[in-house]
Amino acid sequence: MQSVDESAAPRPRYNPQKPKWWTRLSGRRGTRAQRAAIRRMTERGYCLDKDVLREYSRVNNDRRRCGIECRSGEDWRRVWWDRYLGIATDDSFDPCDPAMEQLGAMREKYTHQIQEMYRHRNPLPPKKYQQIWLEIGFGNGDNLLANARNRPDILFVGSEIHQPGVGAVLRRMEEEMGLGGNDGEKIPGAPGNGNEESTAAQFFGDASTTEQTRQSARAQQQLKNVRILPGDGIKLISHLPWDYVDAILVTFPDPWPKESHAQWRVIQCEVVREMHRVLKSGSGSGRVYVATDAECFDNWTKEVFRQESSSWEEVRPCPEREGWLPVVSYYEQKGLDEGRRTMLQCWQCL
Predict the structure, then answer these.
(1) pTM score, two decimals?
(2) Which of 94, 220, 224, 297 has its CA 20 to 30 A from that of 146?
Protein backbone atom coordinates (compact mmCIF):
# COMPACT_ATOMS: atom_id res chain seq x y z
CA MET A 1 0.00 0.00 0.00
CA GLN A 2 1.12 3.52 -0.69
CA SER A 3 2.14 5.82 2.11
CA VAL A 4 0.66 9.25 2.48
CA ASP A 5 2.72 12.21 1.36
CA GLU A 6 2.57 14.48 4.39
CA SER A 7 3.32 17.54 2.25
CA ALA A 8 0.27 16.93 0.07
CA ALA A 9 -2.35 19.67 0.50
CA PRO A 10 -5.08 20.64 0.34
CA ARG A 11 -7.17 17.61 1.14
CA PRO A 12 -9.93 16.48 -1.24
CA ARG A 13 -13.52 16.73 -0.10
CA TYR A 14 -15.36 13.56 0.91
CA ASN A 15 -17.28 12.11 -2.02
CA PRO A 16 -20.18 9.86 -0.89
CA GLN A 17 -20.89 8.77 -4.47
CA LYS A 18 -18.75 5.67 -4.94
CA PRO A 19 -17.53 4.51 -8.39
CA LYS A 20 -19.71 2.02 -10.27
CA TRP A 21 -17.15 -0.77 -10.10
CA TRP A 22 -17.06 -0.45 -6.29
CA THR A 23 -20.85 -0.61 -6.11
CA ARG A 24 -20.94 -3.77 -8.20
CA LEU A 25 -18.29 -5.48 -6.06
CA SER A 26 -19.77 -4.42 -2.72
CA GLY A 27 -23.06 -6.35 -3.14
CA ARG A 28 -25.32 -3.52 -2.04
CA ARG A 29 -28.57 -5.55 -2.15
CA GLY A 30 -29.25 -7.97 0.69
CA THR A 31 -31.01 -11.30 0.55
CA ARG A 32 -34.78 -11.56 0.80
CA ALA A 33 -34.50 -12.64 4.43
CA GLN A 34 -32.19 -9.72 5.24
CA ARG A 35 -34.51 -7.21 3.58
CA ALA A 36 -37.45 -8.67 5.50
CA ALA A 37 -35.52 -8.29 8.76
CA ILE A 38 -34.84 -4.64 7.93
CA ARG A 39 -38.58 -4.03 7.40
CA ARG A 40 -39.54 -5.77 10.65
CA MET A 41 -36.93 -4.04 12.78
CA THR A 42 -37.81 -0.68 11.23
CA GLU A 43 -41.39 -1.14 12.38
CA ARG A 44 -40.15 -2.04 15.87
CA GLY A 45 -37.93 1.06 16.10
CA TYR A 46 -34.47 -0.53 16.06
CA CYS A 47 -33.74 0.39 12.44
CA LEU A 48 -34.07 4.02 11.32
CA ASP A 49 -36.42 4.56 8.38
CA LYS A 50 -34.53 6.02 5.43
CA ASP A 51 -37.70 7.71 4.09
CA VAL A 52 -38.21 9.52 7.40
CA LEU A 53 -34.56 10.60 7.45
CA ARG A 54 -34.87 11.81 3.85
CA GLU A 55 -37.84 13.97 4.89
CA TYR A 56 -35.87 15.33 7.83
CA SER A 57 -32.94 16.05 5.53
CA ARG A 58 -35.10 18.21 3.25
CA VAL A 59 -36.30 20.32 6.18
CA ASN A 60 -32.81 20.58 7.65
CA ASN A 61 -31.26 21.62 4.35
CA ASP A 62 -33.96 24.24 3.79
CA ARG A 63 -33.10 25.74 7.18
CA ARG A 64 -29.54 26.21 5.96
CA ARG A 65 -30.62 27.71 2.66
CA CYS A 66 -32.79 30.19 4.55
CA GLY A 67 -29.66 31.52 6.21
CA ILE A 68 -30.55 30.61 9.78
CA GLU A 69 -27.34 30.79 11.82
CA CYS A 70 -25.56 27.61 12.84
CA ARG A 71 -26.65 27.32 16.48
CA SER A 72 -30.09 28.86 16.12
CA GLY A 73 -32.91 26.38 15.77
CA GLU A 74 -30.97 23.61 17.51
CA ASP A 75 -33.80 22.83 19.94
CA TRP A 76 -36.05 21.45 17.23
CA ARG A 77 -33.29 19.22 15.85
CA ARG A 78 -32.36 17.90 19.30
CA VAL A 79 -35.99 17.22 20.18
CA TRP A 80 -36.61 15.50 16.88
CA TRP A 81 -33.60 13.18 17.26
CA ASP A 82 -34.45 12.39 20.90
CA ARG A 83 -37.94 11.37 19.84
CA TYR A 84 -36.81 9.42 16.82
CA LEU A 85 -34.10 7.50 18.70
CA GLY A 86 -36.35 6.84 21.69
CA ILE A 87 -34.42 8.93 24.22
CA ALA A 88 -36.24 10.19 27.31
CA THR A 89 -35.42 13.71 28.51
CA ASP A 90 -36.25 15.82 31.57
CA ASP A 91 -37.92 18.56 29.52
CA SER A 92 -41.37 19.23 30.91
CA PHE A 93 -42.47 21.64 28.17
CA ASP A 94 -43.87 20.67 24.80
CA PRO A 95 -40.96 21.35 22.44
CA CYS A 96 -43.08 21.54 19.30
CA ASP A 97 -44.10 25.19 19.72
CA PRO A 98 -40.62 26.71 20.14
CA ALA A 99 -39.37 24.46 17.36
CA MET A 100 -42.05 25.76 15.00
CA GLU A 101 -41.23 29.34 15.96
CA GLN A 102 -37.57 28.82 15.18
CA LEU A 103 -38.51 27.44 11.77
CA GLY A 104 -40.74 30.36 10.95
CA ALA A 105 -38.23 31.73 8.43
CA MET A 106 -38.84 28.80 6.12
CA ARG A 107 -41.09 28.89 3.11
CA GLU A 108 -44.76 28.12 3.67
CA LYS A 109 -44.65 25.03 1.48
CA TYR A 110 -42.52 23.33 4.15
CA THR A 111 -44.95 24.02 7.01
CA HIS A 112 -46.99 20.87 6.41
CA GLN A 113 -43.85 18.76 6.02
CA ILE A 114 -42.49 20.07 9.32
CA GLN A 115 -45.74 19.23 11.09
CA GLU A 116 -45.72 15.76 9.60
CA MET A 117 -42.09 15.29 10.54
CA TYR A 118 -42.82 15.89 14.23
CA ARG A 119 -45.35 13.06 14.24
CA HIS A 120 -42.56 10.52 13.81
CA ARG A 121 -41.86 8.84 17.15
CA ASN A 122 -39.84 5.76 17.91
CA PRO A 123 -42.28 2.99 18.89
CA LEU A 124 -39.91 1.80 21.63
CA PRO A 125 -40.54 3.15 25.14
CA PRO A 126 -38.35 6.23 25.73
CA LYS A 127 -35.35 5.59 27.94
CA LYS A 128 -32.63 7.74 29.47
CA TYR A 129 -29.05 7.03 28.42
CA GLN A 130 -25.87 8.37 29.96
CA GLN A 131 -24.15 8.73 26.57
CA ILE A 132 -24.65 8.33 22.84
CA TRP A 133 -22.00 6.59 20.75
CA LEU A 134 -21.94 6.48 16.96
CA GLU A 135 -20.10 3.77 15.02
CA ILE A 136 -19.54 4.51 11.33
CA GLY A 137 -19.32 1.42 9.14
CA PHE A 138 -19.94 -1.41 11.62
CA GLY A 139 -19.44 -4.18 9.02
CA ASN A 140 -20.79 -7.45 10.40
CA GLY A 141 -21.74 -5.72 13.66
CA ASP A 142 -19.64 -7.80 16.09
CA ASN A 143 -18.12 -4.76 17.76
CA LEU A 144 -21.38 -2.79 17.81
CA LEU A 145 -23.36 -5.56 19.52
CA ALA A 146 -20.55 -6.40 21.95
CA ASN A 147 -20.35 -2.77 23.06
CA ALA A 148 -24.12 -2.66 23.49
CA ARG A 149 -24.06 -5.76 25.70
CA ASN A 150 -21.19 -4.42 27.81
CA ARG A 151 -22.60 -0.89 28.22
CA PRO A 152 -26.41 -0.96 28.55
CA ASP A 153 -26.34 2.62 29.85
CA ILE A 154 -25.09 3.90 26.46
CA LEU A 155 -27.16 4.22 23.29
CA PHE A 156 -25.18 2.84 20.35
CA VAL A 157 -26.11 4.10 16.89
CA GLY A 158 -24.48 2.15 14.09
CA SER A 159 -24.40 3.09 10.41
CA GLU A 160 -23.53 0.78 7.54
CA ILE A 161 -23.82 1.46 3.84
CA HIS A 162 -23.98 -2.22 2.81
CA GLN A 163 -27.50 -3.64 3.00
CA PRO A 164 -26.32 -7.25 3.59
CA GLY A 165 -24.44 -6.15 6.71
CA VAL A 166 -27.45 -4.22 8.01
CA GLY A 167 -29.81 -7.13 7.41
CA ALA A 168 -27.45 -9.65 9.00
CA VAL A 169 -27.06 -7.58 12.18
CA LEU A 170 -30.80 -7.05 12.52
CA ARG A 171 -31.46 -10.77 12.09
CA ARG A 172 -28.94 -11.50 14.85
CA MET A 173 -30.68 -8.98 17.07
CA GLU A 174 -34.03 -10.64 16.40
CA GLU A 175 -32.64 -14.03 17.38
CA GLU A 176 -30.91 -12.81 20.55
CA MET A 177 -33.90 -10.75 21.67
CA GLY A 178 -36.39 -13.56 21.07
CA LEU A 179 -38.31 -11.67 18.42
CA GLY A 180 -40.26 -13.49 15.73
CA GLY A 181 -39.73 -13.86 12.02
CA ASN A 182 -41.90 -13.15 9.03
CA ASP A 183 -45.16 -12.64 10.92
CA GLY A 184 -43.57 -10.37 13.50
CA GLU A 185 -44.69 -12.61 16.40
CA LYS A 186 -42.36 -13.37 19.25
CA ILE A 187 -40.84 -16.79 19.68
CA PRO A 188 -42.92 -18.99 22.06
CA GLY A 189 -41.57 -18.89 25.58
CA ALA A 190 -39.47 -15.79 24.88
CA PRO A 191 -39.71 -12.91 27.37
CA GLY A 192 -42.15 -10.18 26.55
CA ASN A 193 -44.72 -12.37 24.72
CA GLY A 194 -47.28 -12.14 27.52
CA ASN A 195 -47.15 -15.88 28.32
CA GLU A 196 -44.42 -15.95 30.97
CA GLU A 197 -46.93 -16.63 33.74
CA SER A 198 -48.14 -19.79 31.99
CA THR A 199 -44.78 -21.49 31.50
CA ALA A 200 -43.97 -24.84 33.02
CA ALA A 201 -41.52 -23.18 35.38
CA GLN A 202 -44.30 -21.33 37.20
CA PHE A 203 -46.47 -24.47 37.56
CA PHE A 204 -43.88 -27.12 38.32
CA GLY A 205 -41.00 -25.12 39.79
CA ASP A 206 -38.50 -26.21 37.14
CA ALA A 207 -35.40 -24.30 38.26
CA SER A 208 -33.51 -24.87 35.01
CA THR A 209 -36.42 -23.58 32.95
CA THR A 210 -36.72 -20.55 35.21
CA GLU A 211 -33.02 -19.78 34.80
CA GLN A 212 -33.32 -20.12 31.03
CA THR A 213 -36.23 -17.70 31.07
CA ARG A 214 -34.21 -15.22 33.12
CA GLN A 215 -31.24 -15.51 30.76
CA SER A 216 -33.54 -14.98 27.80
CA ALA A 217 -35.04 -11.92 29.49
CA ARG A 218 -31.57 -10.47 30.08
CA ALA A 219 -30.63 -11.14 26.45
CA GLN A 220 -33.75 -9.35 25.25
CA GLN A 221 -32.94 -6.27 27.32
CA GLN A 222 -29.27 -6.17 26.34
CA LEU A 223 -29.72 -4.99 22.76
CA LYS A 224 -32.51 -2.49 23.29
CA ASN A 225 -29.83 0.20 23.32
CA VAL A 226 -28.99 -0.31 19.63
CA ARG A 227 -30.21 1.74 16.66
CA ILE A 228 -29.21 0.91 13.10
CA LEU A 229 -28.96 3.34 10.19
CA PRO A 230 -28.85 1.65 6.76
CA GLY A 231 -26.82 4.34 5.04
CA ASP A 232 -23.76 6.59 5.00
CA GLY A 233 -22.75 7.61 8.52
CA ILE A 234 -20.95 10.70 7.24
CA LYS A 235 -24.25 12.05 5.92
CA LEU A 236 -25.86 11.27 9.27
CA ILE A 237 -23.28 13.39 11.12
CA SER A 238 -24.19 16.44 9.03
CA HIS A 239 -27.80 16.20 10.25
CA LEU A 240 -27.12 15.78 13.97
CA PRO A 241 -27.42 18.71 16.42
CA TRP A 242 -24.49 20.47 18.05
CA ASP A 243 -22.96 18.73 21.10
CA TYR A 244 -25.13 15.63 20.72
CA VAL A 245 -22.77 12.61 20.55
CA ASP A 246 -20.25 11.50 23.17
CA ALA A 247 -17.99 9.33 21.01
CA ILE A 248 -17.55 8.38 17.34
CA LEU A 249 -16.01 5.06 16.28
CA VAL A 250 -14.51 4.49 12.83
CA THR A 251 -13.56 0.81 12.71
CA PHE A 252 -11.71 -0.67 9.76
CA PRO A 253 -13.11 1.51 6.97
CA ASP A 254 -12.18 0.95 3.34
CA PRO A 255 -8.66 2.47 3.18
CA TRP A 256 -8.85 3.33 -0.53
CA PRO A 257 -5.06 2.87 -0.81
CA LYS A 258 -4.59 4.60 -4.17
CA GLU A 259 -4.01 8.35 -3.97
CA SER A 260 -6.44 8.83 -6.85
CA HIS A 261 -9.16 7.36 -4.61
CA ALA A 262 -8.45 9.66 -1.65
CA GLN A 263 -11.76 11.48 -2.09
CA TRP A 264 -13.63 8.39 -0.89
CA ARG A 265 -11.79 8.00 2.41
CA VAL A 266 -14.17 8.68 5.29
CA ILE A 267 -11.70 10.89 7.17
CA GLN A 268 -11.50 14.30 5.49
CA CYS A 269 -10.99 17.80 6.87
CA GLU A 270 -14.64 18.82 6.52
CA VAL A 271 -15.75 15.50 8.04
CA VAL A 272 -13.48 16.07 11.04
CA ARG A 273 -14.97 19.55 11.48
CA GLU A 274 -18.48 18.08 11.47
CA MET A 275 -17.40 15.51 14.04
CA HIS A 276 -16.12 18.31 16.26
CA ARG A 277 -19.46 20.10 15.90
CA VAL A 278 -21.63 17.16 16.99
CA LEU A 279 -19.34 15.85 19.75
CA LYS A 280 -19.82 16.89 23.36
CA SER A 281 -16.90 18.37 25.22
CA GLY A 282 -15.86 17.42 28.71
CA SER A 283 -14.30 14.59 30.66
CA GLY A 284 -14.97 11.20 29.09
CA SER A 285 -16.70 12.68 26.04
CA GLY A 286 -15.79 14.22 22.72
CA ARG A 287 -13.56 11.46 21.40
CA VAL A 288 -13.05 9.88 17.99
CA TYR A 289 -11.69 6.34 17.96
CA VAL A 290 -10.13 4.96 14.78
CA ALA A 291 -9.04 1.37 14.05
CA THR A 292 -7.40 0.25 10.81
CA ASP A 293 -4.89 -2.28 9.52
CA ALA A 294 -3.89 -0.14 6.53
CA GLU A 295 -0.79 1.96 7.12
CA CYS A 296 -1.77 4.41 4.40
CA PHE A 297 -5.11 5.15 6.11
CA ASP A 298 -3.47 5.37 9.54
CA ASN A 299 -1.01 8.02 8.27
CA TRP A 300 -3.76 9.82 6.38
CA THR A 301 -5.96 10.04 9.48
CA LYS A 302 -3.15 11.46 11.61
CA GLU A 303 -2.35 14.08 9.01
CA VAL A 304 -5.96 15.20 8.65
CA PHE A 305 -6.45 15.57 12.41
CA ARG A 306 -3.14 17.42 12.74
CA GLN A 307 -4.28 19.88 10.09
CA GLU A 308 -7.14 20.66 12.50
CA SER A 309 -4.79 20.78 15.50
CA SER A 310 -6.51 23.82 16.99
CA SER A 311 -9.60 21.66 17.59
CA TRP A 312 -8.11 18.24 18.30
CA GLU A 313 -5.53 16.62 20.54
CA GLU A 314 -4.30 13.05 20.17
CA VAL A 315 -4.84 10.88 23.25
CA ARG A 316 -1.65 9.00 24.07
CA PRO A 317 -1.49 6.23 24.90
CA CYS A 318 -4.64 5.19 23.09
CA PRO A 319 -7.28 3.90 25.54
CA GLU A 320 -7.43 0.15 25.93
CA ARG A 321 -9.41 -1.41 23.13
CA GLU A 322 -11.58 -3.41 25.55
CA GLY A 323 -13.48 -0.20 26.26
CA TRP A 324 -14.43 0.50 22.64
CA LEU A 325 -13.17 -2.33 20.39
CA PRO A 326 -13.79 -5.43 22.52
CA VAL A 327 -13.87 -8.07 19.78
CA VAL A 328 -11.63 -9.18 16.95
CA SER A 329 -13.92 -9.13 13.93
CA TYR A 330 -13.70 -11.46 10.96
CA TYR A 331 -12.16 -8.66 8.90
CA GLU A 332 -9.53 -7.86 11.53
CA GLN A 333 -8.64 -11.52 11.98
CA LYS A 334 -8.29 -11.91 8.22
CA GLY A 335 -5.81 -9.03 8.19
CA LEU A 336 -3.85 -10.53 11.08
CA ASP A 337 -3.68 -13.85 9.27
CA GLU A 338 -2.30 -12.04 6.22
CA GLY A 339 0.42 -10.35 8.28
CA ARG A 340 -1.17 -6.92 8.81
CA ARG A 341 -1.25 -5.29 12.25
CA THR A 342 -4.05 -3.35 13.85
CA MET A 343 -3.35 0.36 14.44
CA LEU A 344 -5.46 2.35 16.91
CA GLN A 345 -5.93 6.09 17.34
CA CYS A 346 -7.94 8.31 19.69
CA TRP A 347 -8.53 12.04 19.29
CA GLN A 348 -10.02 14.38 21.88
CA CYS A 349 -11.91 17.47 20.73
CA LEU A 350 -10.82 20.69 22.41
Answers:
(1) 0.81
(2) 297
